[in-house]
Amino acid sequence: MRMTAPALATFTAAALLAGGAFAADQTLTGSVAYKDRSALPPNAVLEVALVDVSRMDAPAVTLSSRRWAVQGQVPLAYSLTYDDALIDERMTYAVQATIGVDGRTLYRNTVMTPALTRGAGSEVDIMVDRVAQGMAADSGAVSGGELAGSAWVVTDFGGPILVAEKKPEIAFGEDGRIAGFTGCNRLMGGYEAADGKISFTQGGMTMMACPEPYGEMEMKFNEQLAAVARYTLNGDTLVLGDENGRAVMRLVRKP
User: Is 51 helix (H, G, I), strand (E, B) or coil?
Assistant: First the structure.
């Protein structure tokens, strides 16, 4: 059947649009592994996600994710399709991975694993760490308890109130990860919190040169964060303390 000129033009435009949509689909590949020698059970499930970690004051935004039934043992190969139209070369992206069984997370990556921009490519290998099962929630995520899904601004490091225009921030994700801001640089990592006890696993951090007073503030923030072992939550106030209960950082809930 021969098409009329208007019909042919409409068909051609639709084909071009469809072709453009398909052309925007790209693939991220790599492997997921861990260091211990434990064997994965036959019903293990691997989940990999591409996330936007550009915002310093909020949890990562998922752009694409996929789940697989695990076949064999680590390293586990993965292939994740994403829409290239969502990628901005000015932004920062990372890949997250979890391995779980029956809704319970066994392994996850706590170190930021960059992808696609800022020198990172589309072939990304991910190293995951074993989750402390005493901290695991029934949903499979590491339990952040009452902190999960909240964001906070640092008011002081256990002493005088900070007067800088930009203050450090911490956002606790519901997936056991944190997104932090030192006042100058952005950091990512993991956390485990339960029964007033908390620990952090710091992953990657951007390396911008920091003018004063932000350079000194960043150094203090990282130093205090490394000492945190306990927390006390009272409404919109969060106090992070060391092993002896001494307050090392006070924060207020971010609106």
Answer: strand
Cα angle 209, 89, 80; round to 5:
120
CA dihedral 100, 104, 106, 107 (to 10 degrees): 70
Q: What is the pLDDT of residues 97-124, one digit of tens each?
A: 999 898 888 888 877 788 999 899 999 9
* pTM beyond cutoff 0.70: no
Q: In the block, which residue shows the tokens 């590491």?
A: 142
Amino acid at 9: A
For residue 238 the two structure tokens come to: 């969060």
Q: Which residues contact 105 (CB under 8 A, 6 or more apart)?
A: 98, 99, 131, 136, 140, 141, 142, 176
- Look at the block and give the residue holding tokens 């952040």: 144
Domains and CATH numbers, the chain: 26-130 (2.60.40.2990), 144-253 (2.40.128.270)
